[in-house]
Every structure is written in C-alpha cells, then in structure tokens.
Amino acid sequence: MMNKTKKQVVKIQKPKIIKDIEKNHEKIINIEDEDVFREIYVSNCTIEKQIASHVCFDKVVFKNVVFKDITLNSLELTDVIFESCDLSNADLSGAIIHRAEFINCKLMGINLCNATLQNTLIKKSKCPFAYMRFILMKQVIFEDSIFENSNFQDSNFTKVEFRKCNFRLSQMSGTSLFGIDLSNCSIEGLGIRIEDIRGVIVSPIQAVDLAKLLGIVINS
After folding, report:
1. What predicted TM-score, i.e. pTM, was given to this entire model?
2. Is 219 within the bounds of a domain?
3. How far is CA 152 from the centre of its chain?
4. 172 domain-assigned
5. CB-CB contact of 17 with 42 (8 Å)
6. CB-based contacts of 6: which residues, under 8 Å, 6+ apart?
7. How many domains, the chain?
C-alpha cells in the first residue's frame, strides 16, 4: 500500500455532438420500449413517470431537465451530455454508456447496477447513495463530485480516475483499487477488503486509516 504504485493516466473521448444542436429542440413526452432518440436538444423541462427498456439516446444534449419516476432498464447512451440535470433515484440498471458527460447534475440514489460506462465524465455532481454495484467502468473520470454513502461493490475499474471526490461511508468491497489514486479524495469510513486496497495510491493520513484493515496499531 505504501510502495510506489504507478498512477493510471486516464484519457477519455468526448461526446460527438453535431454543430448547432440547439436548433433541434424537442420535447420528450412518452418513452416506449426500444425507442430511439437521435440528434436532439432537450432543455428546461420535466420527463416523468416513464417505464421502458432498451431505449437509445444517440447524440443528444439534455440541459436543465428533471427526470422524475424514471425506469429505463438496459438504456443505451452514446454521445450524450447531461448538463444541470436531475436524475435522482432514476433506475438505469443495465445501462450501456459510451462517450457521455454528466456536468453539474444531481444523481442522488441513481441506480446504475450492472451498467457499463466507457469514456464517461461525471463532474461537479451530487451523487450520494448512488447504487453502482456490479458496474464495469473503463476510461472514466469522476471529478469534484460527491458519492457519499454510495455502493460500488463487486465492480470492475479499468483506467478510472477520481479527482477531489467524496466517498465517505461508501462501499467498495470486492472492487480492486490497484493503481487508482484516492489521495485527494475523502474516504473516511470506506468499506473495503484488505485484498482490494493492494496497489491503491493514498496520502499518508489515509494510509493510517487504511492500516486498521490490516490490524496494525500505530503507536503515537
């Protein structure tokens, strides 16, 4: 835990959005199974009480949109931007997300269990109690966001970077943190197994806290 583990360098692809997409402004009222929404701009509205599966959003921008009572299982998001949106308690379990950004969003209690995230950025967002168990993440950056009391158990992180995030009282047992830098994050009360913290990069103060997992008593 204290050795020189090489920090992962994460580069992600940005969403590919068409020029002047704001001109393609549309409202989404009903969402049905296997619907496809492509190259549209959705803003300043509420999408509520929708239950559907295998829906696809392709090259879509959501801005100031509230998603309320939403269940979209096996959702596919490709080249999608969420800016200042509220997806709190949305059930997106099994989602496949590629080249997506969540900027200044509320994701409290969001369900992304069994989801796959690739080339995804979550920045300046509030995500306490997020349920991300059994999630597969590759080339993902979490920045300046709150994940307090969230669940990342039994997940797979490949080229994942956490920048100034809050993971207090979160669960990550069964998820290897090898090569991941948590040194500028809050991890007090993090639930993790001994084998999962091998190769993690932490600050000296964090190392003292994690040493408790090893049964080490540090005599001051």
Report:
1. 0.92
2. no
3. 10
4. yes
5. no
6. 179
7. 1
